[in-house]
Write a structure and sequence with these properties.
The chain is built from 4 helices and 17 strands. The chain has 290 residues and is α+β, with helices and mostly antiparallel strands. The chain has an 8-stranded antiparallel β-sheet. A 5-stranded antiparallel β-sheet has the order 7-6-10-8-9, with no helix packed on it. A 4-stranded antiparallel β-sheet has the order 4-17-5-16.
Length: 290
């Protein structure tokens, strides 16, 4: 019994030590920075010696100061289109891909190709698509909401159609939500959570700043992360509220005026670690200069 107890304690100490090392690696990394506009900074780092979670990772972050004079907007498109093209056509200074959608529809104005709830200008554009058991999907466990210019990350409650009662002009359900009011959410043990993939996420810090985040994956240069790893990364970077968006081949970050048509990460749909593998998506999160 003592032997098993000792092994258990050693395993806990080992996990804790690795977590401390990964945290220090992330926070103390030599992040490169470039100002997009006053109060908005683009930061990126490439761990290429397997020093973060024992893997290579390429992380991009747009940090938006709450006093920057910019605004975020949820943008749904009836036509599946690349994040960068949506941003260019609508004059956004930056953008990331949004929530989950249907691949088999190229044009559907009835639900904007979305499987998640969308409200725009206080009008519902798409409902949530539920499973056969009428259960909320893991991609509908939270929401992004914008009310009077203020950006919120919300956790679903027990009401089946809770998003309809959110008092906001713009709402987009997504998920899972990873952290609420400074406390980590308990995560499932399914492959969607535990397998490494490219990820897109949004976090909000204690002082009200917003982080738009992409982490590349499916390449030797960047493995991608599991949702527990994503949760840890954004917690270490100060996220008090953290939510997952659509990832995989959809993961894209765009910044106006930057090289490679503004695509600063490495979308994976072409299976090459470059800036040309962008996927057509159904909705995006735009950043505008007021």
């Amino acid at each position: 019994m003592k032997k098993y107890l000792l092994l258990f304690l050693l395993s806990i100490i080992t996990v804790f030590t690795y977590a401390q090392n990964d945290s220090a690696t992330l926070v103390n990394a030599k992040w490169q920075e470039r100002e997009i506009t006053k109060g908005v900074v683009y930061k990126w780092v490439h761990f290429n010696n397997q020093e973060l979670f024992g893997s290579n990772q390429y992380i991009c972050i747009i940090e938006i100061d709450k006093n920057s004079g910019t605004r975020l907007e949820i943008y749904p498109s009836p036509v599946l289109k690349e994040t960068s093209k949506m941003a260019e056509e609508n004059g956004a200074i930056a953008a990331i891909n949004g929530s989950f959608f249907k691949f088999n529809n190229a044009y559907n104005t009835e639900d904007y190709n979305s499987v998640d709830y969308i409200r725009k200008d206080n009008k519902q554009l798409a409902p949530n698509t539920f499973t056969e058991k009428k259960q909320r999907g893991i991609n509908q466990l939270g929401a992004l909401a914008i009310r009077n210019g203020e950006f919120y990350i919300l956790k679903a409650d027990e009401l089946k159609i809770w998003e309809k009662y959110i008092s906001a002009d713009e709402v987009l359900t997504t998920g899972p939500i990873l952290r609420v009011a400074g406390k980590n959410e308990k995560l499932q043990n399914s492959s969607f959570y535990t397998t490494r993939h490219p990820r897109t996420a949004v976090a909000k810090t204690a002082d009200g700043n917003v982080l738009l985040v992409t982490i590349d994956g499916r390449a030797k240069e960047s493995a991608g992360v599991s949702l527990p790893e994503l949760q840890s990364i954004l917690k270490w970077l100060g996220g008090e509220y953290i939510i997952n968006l659509d990832g995989g081949g959809s993961t894209t970050m765009y910044i106006k005026g930057f090289s490679d048509n503004g695509i600063v990460n490495h979308p994976s749909d072409n299976k090459i670690f470059d800036n040309k593998g962008e996927r057509k998506v159904a909705n995006t999160i735009f950043l505008y200069q007021n």
